[in-house]
Amino acid sequence: MRALNKKVGGTSSREFVEKKIWLREEDTGEVFDENYNDIYIWITNTPEDFWPKKKEFVRADSLVGITRIGKRRDGPGCFYEAIG
Q1: What is the rounded CA–CA span in Å between residue 54 and residue 44?
Q2: Left, alpha or beta for 74 (phi > 0: left; psi -120 to 50: alpha)?
Q3: Which of 6, 21, 59, 61 has the fewest CB atoms inside 10 Å of its own CB, making it the most exposed?
Q4: What is the pLDDT of residue 83?
Q5: Bridge partner residues of 6 (DSSP)
Q6: Angle 14-17-62 from CA coordinates, rounded to 5°
Q7: Helix/strand/coil for 29
């Protein structure tokens, strides 16, 4: 994924190039509760040669990110947890 953000006062425009892996709990081969099938997203950097860097942007690094999305166990609705 490649994303750009707008320039924030006093900084250069940033360019994000990262890989995201999406999987469901059932993809792991083990489901802890059949009523729930949480989604996990793992985000890391890509090598610089994967996408050429453009001179007008500063390459931003996403070191690591982990996200979990699923149905709440204690009532209606859903939850979103993120580390990164």
Answers
A1: 20
A2: alpha
A3: 6
A4: 86
A5: none
A6: 80
A7: coil
